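Record pair follows.
FIRST:
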Amino acid sequence: MSYAYFTSSPKHAIIGGRTILAGSGKSRLAALLVLAASAEFLLVAVAAYSAAALYHQLTFLGAPDAAKYIQESLLISAMQLLVSIGLRQYSRIQTQPRHVFLWSGASGVVFVFSFFVSTIFLLKVSEDYSRATVLAQAVTVLLTVLGTRAIWFSLLQHAIASGLIDARRVILIGDPGHCSRFSAQATASGIRTIHSFDLPTSRADCSVPPRPGAVQALPHARQLVADCRPLRADDIVILISESDVPAALALASALSELPVDVHVVPVGAIDLMAMSRITQFGNMVTMRIFQSPLTPFNRAIKRVFDVAAAIVGLIVICPFFVIIPLAIKLDSRGPVLFRQTRHGFNNEPIRVLKFRSMTVMEDGDNFRPVTRHDPRVTRLGRFMRHTNIDELPQLFNVLAGDMSLVGPRPHATSQNETFAELISSFSRRHNVKPGITGWAQVNGYRGETDTLEKMQRRVEHDLYYIDNWSFLLDLKIIVMTLFSRKLYWNAY
């Protein structure tokens, strides 16, 4: 049987036809994670004690009982470490995005202080602890954990990008071209391909599905197992086409002898598989390819925030609703507000409010996108569009429930119909409510979409937001909306 050799890193040597790792990126990863957990333990203890000391110094003009608060700080820090280890928060850092890693740390802090307060109350020792001190400690520890984890996550990504760390070592089995493409994608996540082999199907009897242990169906499978064993991989990935399924199942059975994770990936669906999850569905197990972006709880949280922020926003900017209408009337003829039909959640049409910034009020099939130096834009309208002031009335759309503060920007219906035929995933943008601002906008992808590539980039950012939604991401986008220069690129 012929073996196709492939490696994604120069840090390997071939000895006797076998690949030997020149370094141990996995051990460096383990060391980094231990160091990160240890640093968090120490910093949480220091933060808890410092908060108590500062509060007592400011309130009582003296230092607290050092012995008591040192013990308390170490206890809080130890509980935080146990929660992190017990929930495998650090061991999963390579398989989760930044906001999930930060959110898990914040959840751990809430659990630790809830448990701590409940314990001292049940043991009737709560009178020895100031409530304000405990609250100050909770806030300080929360900020410390978030800051520490954000720094460690960035360091880890840098170490992966520079090749210092391997999250996992993988052996690929399949067509060399497929292995090369899969390896390139895996490398971006710090997964290093240490060897690849051809799938042994040439003389396999695949006429019937293999029974467990039926390795004899693949004459070279046992030799392949023997060649994989000394490589000490973490994972073996079998890349298959539709006709390779029976042989891959037999090979997977043979590979079960090795202490590794064995994966089977259809080569034509790697991108789709990347979004899939194995999940429990009733009394069955299914592969969930897509899921609703927001759970009912997340939708409730987002809605409460939208309503509260919209009310506050309308109160703060209420002078604009007096000044701008007057300015519009003085600048050009026509109504102050402009309503345009756009697609909202679940592709349902909504009527979006804007301050009128043009001499025309095109809608539906008559819509024509605004271009640079467009003569239809009024003098005042050019200023309003550049500063996004014309979007302020959409706060009423938020209160009505048609829109959210943050989400993919809604397009005119004619634009949607055009691009939905050109970009296959375009309508996924409507799986959440459209927003006044969005991830694409704060990254500079707004304005004229005169090429398909521009719209594709916008859609890519919108889908990233949908697939990675979190409350912290919404807050980040709102802050970037207020301070990012990219938001005003291509605004005309």
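SECOND:
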Amino acid sequence: MYLVKNIFLISCLLTSLQSSDESNETKSTVFFNFDKQLFISQEDGKLDISDFLSTKYGFIPMPIIVTEPAVGYGGGLNLMFLHDSLASSVQRKSPPSISGVVGAGTENGTLFGAAYHLGFWKEDTIRTASAVGAMDLNMNFYLRNLGVDMNLKGYAAYQEVMFRIGESDFFLGGNYLYVDMESKRNDGALPILDRFFERELKMGALSAVAQYDTRDTIFTPSEGLFAKATLRRFDENFGGNENFWRYGAKAFYFHPLFDNVTLGLRLEGEAVNASDGDDVPYVTYPFINMRGIQAMRYQGEKMMLGEVQVRWEFIERWNMVFFGGTGKVFGDEYRFKLGEGAVKESISFQDAPSHAAGGVGFRYELARKFGLWAGLDFATNEENDFAFYITVGSAWGAY
């Protein structure tokens, strides 16, 4: 689930630019030794961190700002270690491997911490992702329009390996996910719901993954196609106590309409399925994940969404972003029925209501050499809820 949005708070940059009378001598801060010219474009003299990213390797601290409405505002820190500089990775057409630790907290008491490693091996013919983390999450889950305030506490581990097919843009691979959490309600109202929400959640899953990627950059693409399909099996034989399938596919397409206008199209679908006698835990039901809609607000057995985005460079290095989309959840979904608690109800795709959201935003070209733009998005939905998101790179994610 996408609960955290990252942004570079270039404190070292602000320090170096606070006085125009200072010389170009090397500065020293807690984290970096750098020349302030690394943050100025040689092309137009404007703010640009391309040269800094090209020369820097080792530890880089990335402050985190959380703006997800489901958990409230918050912040944290991501301490990354680049095993090589981005410049050398561009020359060999392979991103640098990255290790790190991250921690964050929000105003509603949510806490999260993890250690991770992203590996790119043998000229980017093999990609790996490893992570282990713990969480203490407070957020609402919904039975149709009834919000239930939940606490999820536990840990998770993840390992993925992907192999490039020859010299093509196709990758095939798989991953393993293990989750061990305790699910409890934060309030004592409606105790009839306890049998549905109060439970131990232990899940082990193996997945097969296929991926295709022709984007010009993973950060803020201007052209190309990214498509990914995942088939995941949760099973007692894989270390959990639940047996069911979860599968999904997504595609992001980017195309320049004019020199300064880029069109983006997004299509995603997910579903879960269990055999007779098996149960799908409520936390694993697909949900509409779109700017302007609170995470987990609309969940169901199946989910489909589509979103359109237009990015317009109205001034050099500055973009306006216009976006909007709609999604549906259908199939079996849970609702609250007086005297029975949480019960399943089936709804067809045709009869399921559409949930729309959209908004506007802006971007600044933060690192031209790497196609990295950053900025803010402001979004609303059919219920006139308002949310804003700090966006670094693509709002739809890189993978």
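COMMENT: The helical segments are 11-17, 50-55, 86-91, 194-197.
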